[in-house]
Structures are given as structure tokens and as C-alpha cells.
Amino acid sequence: MGKNFANCNFQEQSLGDYVLRSKLGEGSLSTVWRAEHRTTGEVVALKQIPLAKLTRHLRNCLECAGLKVLKQNHIVHRDLKPENILLSCSDCNPILKIADFGLSRILLPHESAEMVCGSPLYMAPEILQFQRYDEKVDMWSVGAILFELLNGYPPFHGRYVQFIRLVSG
Questions:
Q1: Over the stretch 43-73, which tens digit does the pLDDT of each residue have?
Q2: Helices 136-151/65-72 angle, 10° precision
Q3: What single DSSP character describes residue 89?
Q4: What is the CATH superfamily name and number for domain 51-168?
Q5: Pick from 151, 123, 149, 154: which is nearest to 137 by CA?
Q6: Distances in whole angstroms, Cα of residue 153 to Cα of each of 20, 129, 149, 158, 161
Q7: 17 part of the active site
């Protein structure tokens, strides 16, 4: 039997503008498909994450114990970015950990900071605009990280990134 008939039970499915042709691999979070663009015929590898798994993963990110510890101890991290979020497993349950506290500081309630620091792609607008800020800047960074997790690229890219780098020095 030829390789064209190897997966005769596969029913053609689509994902957005792509037709899924064959499964390339599967992991604990996603499935990778060989797919073809409906209009252009371009063949790509598409990663498909089931909504239930994605929702659970995003909830884990937002409920990260590390963020709770920061909040309880009035610590503003100021440099949350994908490189500073570590993933470890305990009995196959993923645990998110926060790393690199070099720019963090204690900020008591009703206090604010003004030092411009952090990674520009994940900085809250008030930091980029040289305004005083509080612990909420870390939640902005978490939102930017989640955006990148969902889309594969940060919320601000292209010319905007050049502008951010210019402004932040």
C-alpha cells in the first residue's frame, strides 16, 4: 500500500484559512499538523491547542503562586517576561516559577515608583511614559506574556518595537 493511503481514516478538517492534511506530532499541550493554505497552497506546520487545555494553562499562569507571593509581600518585579517565567513539574503538574529579581523592589500600598526599568516589550505604558507606577505594572507584563503565548509574537512588534527601544534608551 502506498504512503498516500497510510491514513485512510483521516477526515479532512480545517483550521481558519488552512486545511489540515496530516498529523506531524502530538505533545501534552498541543498537536502539530501539516496544513495547506486554502488560497495560496502554502504548506506549513500548524500547532493546535485545544481550548480546554489552553484555558487551563492560562488560568495556571494567572493564578501562579509566585504572583501571589509577590503581591502578599508588596514586591514589584518590574521585569516579568517569558525568559523570567520558569516551568517545572511536580508529579506531572506544571508549576510556574518567577526568576530574576534584580530589578524588583518592595512597594508598600499607596507608594509608587518612577525608575524606568524592565524589558520594553513587556513594560506597562506608565513606565514607558516616565510616569509614577505601582504593583499593577506586573499584571500588564503578565498580560503581554499571555498575548505572546496565544499569538506567537509579543503585543507590540515591528516599527513600534523600534520606537520603544528608542524611547527607553
A1: 999 888 887 777 777 777 667 778 889 999 9
A2: 170
A3: E
A4: Transferase(Phosphotransferase) domain 1 (1.10.510.10)
A5: 123
A6: 23, 23, 8, 10, 12
A7: no
Alpha helices in 50-115 (DSSP H): 51-62, 65-72
Interior angle at CA 114, CA 111 and CA 116, nearest 5: 140
Residue 36, all three cell numbers: 495547506
Write down the residue that cell numbers 481550548 correspond to.
51
Longest distance between any two alpha carbons in the chain, whole Å: 72
Count how many Cα atoms sit within 13 Å of the Cα of residue 10 in the half-sphere of its side chain: 16
Neighbouring C-beta atoms of residue 161, cutoff 10 Å: 13
The catalytic residue among 17, 79, 100, 138 is 79
Closest CA to 110 of 132, 142, 139, 138: 132
**Cell numbers at 120, concatenated:** 520594553
The pLDDT assigned to 158 comes to: 67
**98/49 Cα distance (integer angstroms):** 24
Domain boundaries, the chain: 3-48, 51-168
Q: Say yes or no: domain 3-48 is CATH 3.30.200.20.
A: yes
Locate cell 484555558: which residue?
55
